[in-house]
Design a protein that fits this description.
heterodimer; A: alpha+beta; Ubiquitin-like (UB roll); Aldehyde Oxidoreductase, domain 4; seven-stranded mixed β-sheet; five-stranded mixed β-sheet; 25 helices; about 25% helix; B: alpha+beta; Uridine Diphospho-n-acetylenolpyruvylglucosamine Reductase, domain 2; Uridine Diphospho-n-acetylenolpyruvylglucosamine Reductase, domain 3; 3 domains; globular
């Protein structure tokens, strides 16, 4: 049907089926800012429009209902290519990050300010109540509105968007806005879905209804006969190539325990067949005609079930080792089930798949028994964390096509070079045949570190020669994606009456689900990112990671650290309570400081021997002291209503900045012929501002305005290798590579200028805004230098190249404080205050850093109190919508929330910078747990911390 | 999906009778959301009104009135306004209707308990005629073909409505409302009860994502507390 509507002030005819969702019609009609994050749930707000002068979800409107309607989309905010003042304020406030629904937020706030030029905080909260922001939290949206109001009244901002750092630098440490933010907030065509060409095929995946079963046969005869079906890939016609989906350094510390599609399904939702068809309706019809014969096996879902004597084995195939095979491997394989896929370890991870153990590790320092014997009190408690989904607003998505005989993949990924390597492996083609283009990423949070869809799309494209688009449904995001490893962590901690901790023991049991993605590294972080914060002589950990038949686990922002901190800081709080000591004093007494030799690192090397280094830059004590002052530590708050009890808690935290000795980054900086600069960075900007960091490095070193620099990143053809955006590596590794490339270009530019001017290099320097100046006063602009260098008699284009590897650690530290109110009658929990204090050293983009802290903290509040993947007795995930699963929205954010950057300078990071966002995931759970214990006397030792658990512990029912 | 756009209740009722796998459509936030789609949709907006008016002591709310309009109208009794405002998303409130909410009788919805406690009445078409019926009767006996045309509530009704959920946008474990000595309770996934304060004791409660049956029973027993003057809050 055709309907006539007014869209953005113009009369428009929209075409489509009467029952087609208006969102889809708008997108197809060119209003591409209107996106879909929730598959018609009416929750996330990426599909928000103004419909007849009201905010509405376009996914819940059918085309016929729009007849005669007045519609506004975010495209209406633009004046030509110019964004409006609300969009600009959002950029300036730092909230435009992964930005999948930033255009809708801009539309909402613009509409709010049209109706109410002077909105209160509650008005803003109400306006944003139907939009889910995962990356930046909500705090700086209030700031953005404030900035708009100030500019409209005074002509300029009166409120600083963030503190500034390093007065000697022009752009580093200053809020400047993300260089790619304008097209993002404007709703530009920047995401994978925007690259899909008309006529592209789609892929639909038939998934297992069983948690654990052999697939005896798959009959696709009838399905292949459906008109429009191009091909169907199953376990019986896919390449016999083993790999794993985690995007990690090669060789990976994860077993190769899967093929594209396996002959044994290991979770509800596991791949059974991939149908490539002309459209989704055809693909789904074909899927319904596929006949699969399953042979179900008893599943295991928990660590306890997996480790039980005689438990069903999730993997029981032949085990191989690329290196370091044990002597008794042949005997070990005697009981292997040859109907199953192999498990190939790149090197020993101390797994034992005949006991469902995917990986194991152990280590420590001192004498743990002596440490406990010296203690005046010991706590020995077990803490359980739940399975949590990353919930990026843009689901996992991939578009693949053949271009010039090569396989081209448009990806939403954190690891383009690992995508290239793994897809090439699966397709059995060399890497030069694969071109991966990382588009803008609508949220990653770790889940897009894993190659969860690109492998299958890549192979299907290479096999069929067709252009193919694939997108996970929101439900698939829950049950066929990577999630936080659920962990059971036992902590035994002993201490003296004076607060000295004498010994810490951690027993970490992690659930990796059906495949071993990150089965060593994520669980290792529960110990490797927690124990080194303690100045304790006797510490030891045991780690076992188990295969089960739950939905897959994998990388998630913070890796295992948020779980480790929940356990170890809670245990410290319990120990302090037992000893009658203030937990903050206990922390102060036992934390590391700059220069302390981290002997514990020797045993925390993640599959190799760790390197002992001293603590570098460290703002931990300052964070603790400042946070304590801010929250009024030691002062008991009392509510007017006696049912409400108020408590306070804190956590001291650390993370890392990439993986020294493993990570590797490269970048190039080109001086273009007009004297401007193009950075080619291997780093994958996933919305965090990494491209801006690269640009700032060039701007500072070459002394040019930031506007003179553009960045292309994450394109495997254009840019050089980078291990990717994970483990907090972006600023430290990719940023340092860009910095080194800029320094190299500076050196070459000086050398070229020396030749052009006939002056010795040591008599030359560079001056803002882009000149090489000689001591005799002569100077050349970069345009003049480049023009001559690239002339017919020139010496060639000037290109700086930089790489970065390091043995040095740049560890961010921090402290998070929470004030929580608990209603001991109803169990309601309200996080009243949350203060996050972190030493990012020199925060290169301080406004973005603050927003990443807000986003990570709110995410972690969600993990602590609300979010939970629930499986039924058959292993089927029954929380496949946002409402069922539970994510924090603006109403759930603490009324008083502050992010504070502690100013220290690091020796190794670019301009003294360290990482920012992963560490911010570590504090909420332990701080809130401690605050709840302070308020109620109840320690809740499992996620999510619910009112029901508190009431039960209080004996209310 | 087939769309039907009747212009009268009679026509709509007839289509609903004929198409067993159909749903009525008003605001669409439920029937157009994932998991609730039907093959046939009967759009009632051709004849349902959305106005809010006073008639004597009663407030008449057209079934098509959006929750946002209900929550913003000073004419609407406060307990109903509070219940409508309980829908946490502005976009949802701009689209969802009071008639749709009333018709669905959802135990984790925003309106059910408030409408029961306030002793709302519904004007509905039952296939034969237009009938004015207490919402309590509707909640117990309604037929899926009935069409709510409007709701009426005594304008003086005030009271409390409270829902307890883990997070603002999650399903409520329990919702309770009180108007004078009239109480109503709903508990996820499907328990509804009204009557005196202790009527919750007769509810069949189930464990689900929102919590255990025991937890819900406890919550229902404490959700209201009396101040020194005996007022409920």
């Amino acid at each position: 049907m055709e309907i006539r509507a007014e869209i953005n002030g113009r009369s428009v005819v929209l075409s489509g089926a009467a029952d087609e969702r208006l969102r889809d019609v708008l997108y197809r009609s060119g209003y591409t800012s209107v996106r879909d994050s929730d598959d018609r749930e009416g929750f996330a707000g990426s599909d928000t429009i103004i419909f007849n002068d009201r905010l509405a979800y376009s996914n819940l409107i059918l085309l016929y209902q729009a007849e005669g309607a007045s519609i506004r989309t975010p495209e209406s905010l633009m004046d030509g290519r110019r964004i409006n003042d609300v969009q600009q304020a959002m950029i300036d406030a730092g909230v435009v990050q992964s930005a999948y629904n930033a255009p809708e937020a801009a539309l909402i706030l613009t509409y709010l300010l049209e109706k109410n030029p002077d909105p209160s905080k509650d008005d803003i909260k109400n306006a944003l109540s139907g939009i889910f922001i995962r990356d930046a939290g909500y705090e700086h949206y209030y700031l953005a509105v404030q900035l708009v109001r100030e500019k409209r009244i005074h002509g300029s901002y009166r409120t600083a968007v963030s503190p500034s750092f390093r007065s000697s630098l022009r752009v580093v440490g200053k809020p400047s806005g993300k260089i790619d933010a304008e097209p993002l907030v404007a709703g530009g065509k920047l995401f994978v879905e925007d690259r899909v060409e008309p006529g592209a095929f789609v892929m639909h995946i038939l998934r297992s209804p069983f948690a654990h079963a052999y697939v005896r046969s798959v009959d696709v005869t009838e399905a292949l006969g459906v008109d429009g079906v191009e091909d169907i890939i199953t376990a019986f016609n896919c390449p016999d190539v083993y790999y794993m989906q985690a995007g990690q350094g090669n060789p990976e510390p994860s077993p190769y325990d899967r093929r594209l599609i396996n002959r044994k399904v290991r979770h509800v939702g596991d791949r059974v067949a991939a149908i490539i068809a002309k459209d989704m309706e055809t693909a789904e019809k074909a899927a319904s005609l596929i006949k699969v014969v399953y042979d179900p096996i008893e599943p295991v879902f928990t660590v306890e079930e997996a480790m039980a004597e005689g438990a069903p084995l999730v993997h029981n195939g032949v085990v191989e080792y690329v290196s370091g095979a044990p002597d008794d491997l042949a005997e070990y394989n005697r009981s292997a089930d040859h109907d199953e896929e192999k498990v190939i370890y790149q090197f020993p991870l101390h797994g034992d798949i005949r006991k469902n153990i995917a990986a194991a590790a152990h280590g420590g320092i001192g004498d743990i028994d002596r440490g406990f014997s010296e203690a005046d009190a010991i706590v020995d408690e077990t803490y359980q964390t739940s399975q949590i989904q990353c919930t990026p607003l843009e689901p996992h998505v991939c578009y693949g096509h053949i271009d010039g005989g090569r396989l081209t993949l448009n990806c939403s990924t954190q690891v383009p070079y690992h995508v290239r390597r793994i897809v090439a492996t699966v397709c059995q083609i060399p890497e030069h045949k694969v071109h991966v283009i990382k588009e803008r990423v609508g949220g990653g949070y770790g889940s897009k570190q894993d190659i969860l869809v690109e492998d299958l799309v890549g192979y299907a494209v290479w096999k069929t020669g067709k252009s193919i688009y694939y997108r996970n449904t929101r439900a698939e995001e829950f049950y066929a994606n990577s999630t936080r490893h659920p962990m059971r962590i036992r902590v035994k901690m002993g201490g003296k009456k004076d607060g000295t901790i004498t010994a810490i023991y951690m027993d970490v049991r992690a659930n990796t689900g059906p495949y071993g993605n990150h089965c060593l590294t994520v669980p290792m972080n529960a110990s490797s990112k927690t124990l080194p914060i303690f100045r304790v002589d006797n510490m030891y950990y045991d780690l076992f990671t188990y295969y089960t038949n739950t939905p897959p686990a994998g990388a998630y922002q913070g890796y295992g650290a948020p779980k480790g901190y929940f356990a170890i800081v809670s245990a410290m709080g319990e120990l302090a309570m037992k000893l009658g000591i203030d937990p903050l004093e206990m922390a102060r007494k036992n934390i590391v400081e700059k220069g302390y030799m981290l002997e514990i690192l020797r045993g925390l090397g993640e599959g190799r021997e760790g390197v002992v280094v001293p603590v570098g830059s460290c703002g931990l004590r300052e964070a603790l002291d400042k946070g304590a002052e801010m929250i009024g530590w030691g002062k008991k708050e009392v509510a007017d209503d006696p049912d409400w009890k108020i408590g306070k808690g804190f956590a001291m935290i650390q993370q890392g900045s990439g993986l020294p000795g493993l990570d590797h980054s490269n970048a190039q900086v080109k001086l273009l012929t007009d004297g401007t600069f193009l950075v080619l960075s291997g780093g994958a900007d996933i919305g965090t501002g990494l491209d801006t960091i690269s640009a700032k490095c060039v701007s500072e070193i070459m002394k040019v305005p930031l506007e003179s620099v553009s960045v292309v990143s994450g394109d495997t053809d254009a840019c050089m290798f980078d291990t990717g955006a994970y483990a907090s590596s972006g600023t430290y590794f990719s940023g340092n590579a860009s910095l080194n490339a800029a320094k190299d270009l500076l050196k070459k530019t000086i050398a070229e200028a020396s030749l052009q001017l006939g002056v010795a290099e040591d008599e030359l320097s560079v001056e803002y805004p882009g000149y090489v100046v000689a001591k005799d006063g002569r100077k050349l602009s970069y345009y003049e230098i480049s023009h001559t260098a690239t002339s017919g008699t020139g010496r060639g284009q000037l290109i700086g190249t930089g790489s970065f590897t390091t043995p040095n650690f740049a560890v961010p530290y921090g402290a998070h404080f929470a004030e929580v109110a608990v209603n001991i009658r109803t169990g309601e929990i309200k996080v009243r205050k949350f203060y996050a204090l972190q030493d990012a050293a020199t925060p290169i983009n301080p406004e973005l850093a603050l927003c990443q802290m807000y986003g990570a903290v709110l995410k972690s509040i969600g993990h602590t109190l609300y979010e939970d993947m629930v499986l039924d007795k058959n292993g089927k995930c029954i929380t496949t919508t946002f409402t069922d699963y539970g994510v924090p929205m603006i109403q759930d954010a603490p009324d008083d929330m502050k992010a504070v950057l502690i100013d220290v300078n690091d020796d190794y990071g670019p301009f003294g910078a360290k990482s920012i966002s992963e560490i911010a995931c570590n504090g909420a759970a332990p701080a809130i747990a401690m605050a709840i214990a302070d308020a109620t006397g109840v320690w809740v030792r499992s996620w999510p911390i619910t009112g029901e658990k508190i009431l039960k512990a209080l004996g209310r029912f | 999906m087939r769309i039907h756009r009747p212009l009268t209740p009679e026509e709509a009722y007839g289509i609903r009778k004929e198409c067993r796998a159909s749903s009525y459509l008003l605001g669409g936030t439920y029937v157009l959301s994932i998991g609730h789609e039907r093959e046939d949709l009967i759009d009632l907006n051709g004849f349902i009104t959305s106005g809010i008016s006073e008639e004597g002591d009663s407030i008449i709310i057209g079934a098509g009135a959006k929750l946002e309009d209900v929550s913003a109208s000073s004419a609407v009794p406060p307990i109903i306004r509070k219940a409508a405002a309980g829908c946490p998303s502005l976009q949802q409130r701009n689209m969802a209707t009071i008639g749709g909410n009333a018709a669905l009788c959802l135990a984790d919805g925003y309106m059910t308990a408030a409408l029961l406690a306030a002793d709302a009445h519904v004007l509905l078409y039952d296939g034969d005629s237009t009938v004015n019926m207490p919402y309590r009767v509707y909640a117990e006996k309604h037929s899926p073909e009935w069409i709510i045309l409007s709701l009426s509530i005594a304008g003086s009704k005030d009271g409390s409505v409270k829902r307890i959920s883990r997070a603002s946008h999650m399903h409520a474990a329990v919702t309770a409302a009180v108007c004078g000595d009239s109480y109503a309770y709903t508990a996820s996934p499907s328990s509804i009860m009204y009557g005196n304060r202790d009527c919750y004791k007769d509810m069949d409660l189930e464990s689900d994502l929102t919590g255990s049956a025991e937890y819900k029973r406890y919550l229902l027993s404490v959700i209201f507390k009396e101040d020194r003057d005996g007022n409920q809050s």
